[in-house]
Amino acid sequence: VVRSPSLAVAMFCLAFAVVGCSVTGDHVMDDTPPDPTADGSVYGGFPVDPPAPDEVVLTIEGPVRIDFTMAELEALAVIDVLIDEPFVRRRETYRVVLLRDLIERAGIGPDASVTTIALNDYRYDDSVMALREAGAMLAVARDGAPIPMDAGGPIRLVYPGDSTYASLLDAWNWSLRTIRVVEGP
Amino acid sequence: MSLLRRAWERIVGQDVASFFPFSVHRLTLVVLLMLALVAQALLSTGLGTPERFERQVLLREESDANSVMAVQRESFNVALALAGPSTGDVSLRDVQIARALLGQRLSVVTQSGATTLGNAGPQYQAALAELDAVILQLGAVPNEQRGLVLQDAEEVIAVFLSETRALSGTFQLLGREQIERLFSERARLQSLQLSVQLTIMLLLGLLTLSVVHTVGRGYRRVSQQLELQRLDAELAEERYSLLRDLDAALTPIAQAVDDGMTSTEVLATLATVLRALHPGLRWRLPGPGTVALAPVGVTIAPSGGVRLVPQDLAVLAQRAQHVVDAMWRRDHDQRARESERRRDGLTGLANRRGFNEAVERKLCDGSPQPVTVVLIDLDHFGDINGSIGFAGADRILLDVAQRLAALGRTVPGALVARIAADEFGLVLRPVGRPEAFAREVQRACTFLSGAGGVEAAVTVSVGLSSGSSLHVETEELQRQAAVAILIAKQSDRSGFVQFDPIRHADLASSLDDDLAIRTARDAKEFVMHYQPVVQLEDGAPLGCEALVRWDRPGVGLVGPGEFLSLIERSGSAFEFGVENLDTVLGTWSAGLRAAFAGCQGPGPFVSVNVDAVQLGHPGFEGSVLSALQRHRVEPRDLVLELTERQAVAHEHSGMLSRLRGAGVRIAIDDFGSGFSSLGQSTRLPLDLLKLDRTFVASLGGDVREQQLFRDVAQFALTLGLELIAEGIETEAVAATLRSAGIRHGQGFLYSRAVPADQLITWVRRRLRTGVVVPTR
Predict the structure, then answer these.
(1) Is B108's CB within 8 Å of A87's CB?
(2) How far apart are CA A48 and CA B97, in angstroms?
C-alpha cells in the first residue's frame, strides 16, 4: 500500500500526532454518575416534610405580586420535558410550566430584569428577554413525583438541551422561592 | 487552463503531463496536507481552542473547587439554622430544608467525576455524620427539649463549623488542581496544534521535494533534448560543410571529365581529392579497368573521429559516384560512337570504314597466310529498287546480309561488311581454295525474293582478290577486288572473277575511271546544287533546277558534263539517277519547298534532269512515283527535264503521259539547240520548254535571229507551254527576253547553282526585300 518513502514518513507523522494527542490528554473522565439511592442519606440527610397545602412556594414580585401554592403551580404545569440534568448528569423527565407565562401573569414586561432567589438565598439575575429566549421553565415534578428538596425541589428552574443556558449552570436555580423585578416595568 | 497549458508548452516545448507526470504518491501527499490543514483550521478556530475549552469546562460542569465552596456555604446555613433553636426560635423544618439544600450540594457530580461529598474529605464527612445525629435527635424530642439537645451538641456543632472552615483549604487545594489541569489541558491542545503544524510542514517539505525532484527531472530531460538538438545541428553543419567541400572538389573534376580527361587521370585525381577531404574517411574507388567494364560503386569506410551516419556516407559516396558515372557514360558513349562509325545502319554489319580497318588488321596481323577480300555486288539493284520500292529493296539487302553473315560464321575470323548501297565485302583467310569460297558466296546470294509483293531474282557478281602483307597494301587489295567485280559484271553479269595481277593489269588501268565513280558514289561525293528560276519581270523566285555536282577531293566541284558519260559507261546510270532523285525530293520536302511557299506563278517546283538510260529503264516510272510518295512530295512540284530527242524516242511508250497524268510536269530541256522541231513538240505531252543557253546567247546577234526567237516564243505560248530561258547572264538579254514575251528564266544574272541551304537564304532574302537585285 505504501509505495513511496515520503508517503510512509508522512503517514507515520500523522499517526504520531494523533497518538501524541491522546496520550497527552490523560485525565480520565469517569462518566459513571454516583447512585443516589445507594447512599442517599449521606447526601440528602433526611426527608423534609412537604409544604402545607396553603403554603406559598413561589412569589413573583412584579407590578402585580402573585403568590403560588404548590397546587396552583401543579395546575399550571402541563408540559413534560426530558432534561439532561447537568449536576447529577442524568436524563430526567420534568413536568414544567413556562417561566414566560408566569412572568407575564405578574405584568412584567419583556424589557425588565429580574432576580431569581432560592430558599437558601442563592440569586441569579437576568433579563426577561434572555430567559425567554433560553426557554426557561419552572419544574414542579420529576419523574412523576414531587421533586425532593435535596434534588432542588420543590420547584426549580430548568432549561432544554438545545438552549444556550443548558450549559450555564448558574442559571439553573434550585429550590426557587421568589422572582423579583429589579429593573424596568 | 488550456491557455496556461499552451503557454507552458510554448515556453518549455513539452506538454505539461510529460513534464509533471501524474503520480499517486504526490496526490496522496496533497490529500494528507489538505487534511492536516483542515485539522489545523479546526484547532485554531473551532472547538479546540484552550479558551473556549476552559469556558465550557467552567460553565457546563461544576468544578471541584466551586462545589466545595458551595458546600461550605450550605454548611454554614445548616449551622445558622441550628442556631435558631438555641435562641428559642428554632424551626425544625428550617433545619431540615437547610440540611436538604446541603444534601443537594453534596450530591453534585463535579468536573473530575467525583462527588462533592468525596471532595469535602473524610473529616468533614465525619463531622457531618455527627451533626446529622444531632439533627435526628432534635426531631425525636419535643420542641421544648431541643435547647438541651443543642447544648449537649455544642461540641459537635463546633467541630462541624471547624471542619466547615477547613473546607477553605480544600477549596484552595482543589482550585490549584483545577488550574493545573487547565494548564495541562492547554498544553495538550498546544502540543496537538504543534504536532499538526509539524505534520503540515513535513508534508509541505515532502511535497516540495517531490515537485523539485520532478521539475529537476523534467529540466534534465529538456536540457538533454536540447543537447541532442545541439549535437544534431553540429552534425548537420559538419555534414553540410563536408558536402560543400566535396562538391567544390568534384566540380573541376566533373568539368575535366567533360573536357576529355582520361579515365585513369580522372580516377587518380579523384582519389587524391577525396583523400584530402577528411582524414576520417577512407574512400574506395573503382580501378580504371573495372570502370571500363561497368559502373562500379564508390564506397566509404569511416574510421575513428567520424560522426557521420551510414546515410550521410552514402550521400557523399553518391556524389563521387556521379563523377565516376559521368566518366563511364562518356567513355561508353564514345565507344558506342566509335562502333557506330564502323557499322552499317540498315544491316548492322560493318560499314566501309569497318571493313577497311578489318582488312588492314588482317594484313598486318603477322600471319604468312594470304588474306582474301571478296566483294559482292547485287546485280540490277537499281531495277529492283525501282520495281519493288525501297522498303522491299531494303528487305532484300537484309536477306543478303544474313546469308553472308551465316556464311562468314563458318570461317573463323571472317568479317562481313556492307560497303556500299548494293555492295558487300568479306575479308577472311579461307580454309580451302578462295574461288571455292567465292562460288559458295555466289550460290548463297542467288535466290528468288518475294519482298515487296513482287518476285525478284537476286543475283550477285563476285570479285575476289588475295594477297599477303608482304606483297600488297590494303587499298590495292580492295581495288583489285573491285576491278575483278567490274570485269565480272561486264563479262556476263553472273559470274565471278578472281583478280589476276598479270592477266588483268591492262584492264585494271582502263577501269580506273569506273572505279573512281564507284568509290565516289560510295563516299557520297556526288552532291546536288540548285539554281533558282525567276520571274523575269521582277526577279521573284518561282522554283529551281537541281543539278548534280561531283565534289571531287583535291579537284573541287566538277559539272555533270565531265562524269555523266563515265557513269553511263559503268552501267550504274539508272541507280545514280534514282539516288539523285531521292536526294532532291528529300531536300525539297525537308525545307526547300517551304522556302518557295510564298512565291507567285504556277506553283513552286524543282526540276530534275533525266538521262536516256534512266528513261529507257523499265523501273523509271515506278521509281519516280515511289520517291514522290516516300517523301510526301506533291507530283506537280516535280518537273522532269528531258532532251527533245529523248522525248521523241519515248513518245509512244505512254510513260510520259502517265507521269503527267499523275501530276508530274514534263519539260523539254535545251530547246533550240540543234535538233529542234517545233512541230514535234506539239505532239509531245509537255508543260514547259526550256530555251537552251546557246539559243538565248544568240539574242545579242542579228535581227533575223531575234525574229526567229520571237516566233518560237510566240508559238510556244500559243501551245500553252511555259517558256523558261536558260543561261541569262546580262540585264540586256533579260530585257530582250521580256520584250519577246518570255516571262521566266534562270542564269548567272540571278544566281548560279548553289547548295540547298544557300538557295533557301537567297529565296528568303528575295521574298523579304521584294527588290530585284541581280547577284553573282
Answers:
(1) yes
(2) 7
Given A20, A149, A175, which is nearest B195 (Cβ)?
A: A20
Q: ipTM, 2 decimals?
A: 0.73
Edge-first strand order for the sheet with A113-118 is A65-69, A56-61, A176-183, A113-118, A123-127
Radius of gyration of chain A (CA): 23
* Cβ–Cβ under 8 Å, residues B459 and B450: no
Would you call A175 and B101 a contact, using CB atoms and an 8 Å cutoff?
yes
Integer Cα distance of B110 and A101 in angstroms: 33
Alpha-carbon radius of gyration of chain B: 70
DSSP-derived secondary structure letter, B502: T
Cβ–Cβ under 8 Å, residues B404 and B444: yes
Which residue from A32, A45, A174 is spatially nearest to B115, judged by alpha carbons?
A32
Contacts with B635 (C-beta within 8 Å, 6 or more apart), sequence order: B625, B628, B662, B663, B664
Do A149 and B97 meet the contact criterion of CB atoms below 8 Å apart?
Answer: yes
Residues of A in Cβ contact (< 8 Å) with B98: 120
Q: Are strands B665-671 and B688-691 parallel, antiparallel or unpaired?
A: parallel
* CA distance, residue B63 to nearest chain A CA (Å): 11
Chain B interface mutation, best of A9, A30, A87, A121, highest count of B Cβ atoms under 10 Å: A87
pLDDT digits (tens, 9 = 90+) for B501-545: 666 666 656 666 677 777 787 778 889 999 999 988 888 888 999
Q: Which residue in the set B103, B114, B185 is minimally distant from A44, CB to CB?
A: B103
Helix B122-140 to helix B64-86 angle (10° resolution) is 30
| Cβ-based contacts of B181 with chain A (< 8 Å) | 27
**Helix, strand, coil: what percent of chain A each, to 5?**
30, 30, 40
The total of other beta-carbon atoms located within 10 Å of residue B597's CB is 9
Q: Nearest CB to A169: which of B62, B192, B202? A: B62
Lowest mean pLDDT segment, chosen from B46-60, B165-179, B233-247: B46-60
Q: Choose, out of A11, A24, A142, the residue to mutate when testing the contact with B (most B CBs < 10 Å).
A: A24
Residue B679, C-beta contacts closer than 8 angstroms, at least 6 positions apart? none
Which residue in the block uniquely carries the three cell numbers 401543579?
A74
B678 vs B589: CA distance, rounded Å: 35
Shortest CB distance from A13 goes to which of B56, B184, B202? B202
- Written as nine digits, the cell of B721 is 507551254
Distance CA A135, CA A154 (A): 20
What are the tens digits of pLDDT across the range B256-280? 888 888 888 888 888 888 888 877 7
Instruction: State the count of interchain CB pairs (< 8 A) between A and B.
Output: 141
Backbone angles phi, psi at B712, to 5 degrees: -60, -45
d(CA B158, CA B131): 10
Q: How many angstroms away from the CA of A73 is the closest CA of chain B? A: 20
The C-alpha of B75 sits at a distance from chain A's nearest C-alpha, in angstroms, of 11
Contact, B606 vs B531, CB < 8 A? Answer: no
Closest residue on chain B to A32 (Cα): B113
Q: Which of A160-174, B38-52, B142-156 has the lowest mean pLDDT?
A: B38-52
- Cell numbers that stand for B487 in this block: 570485269
B102–A21 CB contact, under 8 Å: no
CA distances from A40 to B103, B104, B117, B241, B749 (A): 9, 10, 12, 112, 173
Q: Locate B677 and state its grid cell.
A: 522541231
Its pTM stands at 0.39
> How far lies A140's CA from each of A107, A176, B672, in Å?
22, 10, 179
Burial of B96 (C-beta count, 10 Å sphere; 0-12/13-18/19+): buried
Which residues in chain A touch residue B36, judged by CB atoms under 8 angstroms apart?
14
User: From CA B690, how far away is CA B643, in angstroms rounded?
Assistant: 10
